[in-house]
Amino acid sequence: MLETLKPELEATLQANQVPFASFGVTDANATRMQAEIGTAGAAPLDENHIFRIASMTKPIVTLAALQLVARGDLRLDQPMKEILPELGEVQVVSRNSDELTFAPLARDITLHHLLTHTSGYAYDFHAELIAELVAQEKLAGVASDNDAFLSAPLIFQPGENWEYGINIDWAGRIVEKISGVDLNAYVKANILRPLGMEHTSFSINDLNGDALVPLALRDDDGNLSDVSELMPNVTDGPYLGGGGLYSNVGDYMKFMRMVLKDGQGPDGQILPADMVRDMFTNQIGDKQVGYMPSRNPMLAKGHGWFEGTSMKWGYGFMLNETEVDGRRAAGAGAWSGLYNTFFSVDRARETGCVVMMQMLPVYNEAALAVFDTFERAVYSANS
User: Fold this and answer.
1) What is the pLDDT of residues 97-126, one digit of tens each?
2) Residue 150 phi/psi, 5° resolution?
3) How far apart (Å, rounded) are the C-alpha atoms in residues 348 and 326?
4) Are 255 and 195 in contact (CB under 8 A)?
């Protein structure tokens, strides 16, 4: 497969002015293709380079929370104020004429709400009301170098809608509270080490920091500038379940292989098979994963999904309800990270695809073109 795909991948990187990317394809048992193309800083990209994977952290931390459910330490319908009392004190913001007003919770936030992004929590770079609070300096943005953004209000009452937000950061706090150890320690002991993911951690101190690739900002003309210093490296916390992991393609394929095999790791079950299937089952009913507008063009472009395809959310993954033409079967799971890392896990066709770039804003046209070309080429090679 490498000989078939690599020339096309090299061409799409060049055509879209993307300096480097790491690509991987796996089935349930083994890597089928891995390619590192381009130059990261002064060095040719190789399989040992480390990427900031941002929201590709979410499926891993979602799985961590589900492990605690499987062990009987948590319930999906459990009010999370029982674990973290501050989750019972959150308010809901709305606009009344020209003013923002705040109301108390009408119902409790449950673990299910957090894991499905139906709690009402939102991101400031997508949600207008949260962006307004950040602009007024009444709230820290998610790009701050700490966890102050967790003080955000909700934008609707729990369970009323779907909105992508800081839910899995809260889920990470819950994992810490229940397990009695920090999130990095829990995830390493219960997921990363059992899967052999030696190049993945919430702390850069656990990894080869010199192998961390630079982060670029891409302007509308395709020019790139190094903005690595805008995202300070995390050493000793806070460990953010919504986006704090460092990893690479080789390691992430190990995670994808586990979910392709119904939770089976190299030496044992990581999560019960029925709960892995729940991760790939619509958990939001008739709600939709809709268009995600941009409130901060440096961080994110506005982005929709596949035309004519209804998008849902399971636990940890966005799901396409119908087949995506030329690509995923119905029910495939996928997501992405702020720095333009992307993956899809297609259990029906036993195919996992992952690509890691490292630039802002997320969902810029060049990055989307690279992932689109890659995924289509993989499925074409499989046909």
Assistant:
1) 889 999 999 999 999 999 999 999 999 999
2) -70, -10
3) 14
4) yes
Helix (H/G/I), strand (E/B), else coil: 171: helix
- Torsion sign across C-alpha atoms 94, 100, 106, 109: positive
Identify whether the C-beta of residue 193 lies closer than 8 Å to the C-beta of residue 20. Answer: no
Active-site annotation holder among 121, 123, 164, 363 = 164
Tens of pLDDT along 240-294? 999 999 999 999 999 999 999 999 999 999 999 999 999 999 999 999 999 999 9
| Cα(180)–Cα(105) distance, integer angstroms | 28
Contacts with 166 (C-beta within 8 Å, 6 or more apart), sequence order: 121, 122, 123, 142, 149, 150, 152, 242
Triad 236, 242, 248: Cα angle to 5°: 75
The yes-or-no answer on residue 287 being catalytic is no
pLDDT at 2 over 80: no
Query: Can 164 be counted among the known catalytic residues?
Result: yes
Q: What is the DSSP string of 64-122?
A: HHHHHHHTTS--TTSBGGGT-GGGGS-EEEEEETTEEEEEE-SSPPBHHHHHHT-SS--
Instruction: Find the domain containing 243 and state its range.
Output: 2-382
CATH at 335: 3.40.710.10
What is the Cα–Cα distance from 219 to 102, expressed in whole angstroms?
A: 37
Q: Which of 22, 55, 247, 344 is catalytic?
A: 55
List the one residue out of 39, 329, 340, 88 whose CA is nearest residue 213.
39
The number of domains in the chain is 1
Q: Are 81 and 108 in contact (CB under 8 A)?
A: yes
Neighbours of 278 (CB within 10 A): 18
**Among this protein's residues, is 239 annotated catalytic?**
no
- Mean pLDDT along residues 345-366: 98
Q: What is the pLDDT of residues 71-101, one digit of tens each?
A: 999 999 999 999 999 999 999 999 988 899 9
The pLDDT value given to residue 254: 99
Catalytic residue, from 58, 188, 254, 261: name it: 58
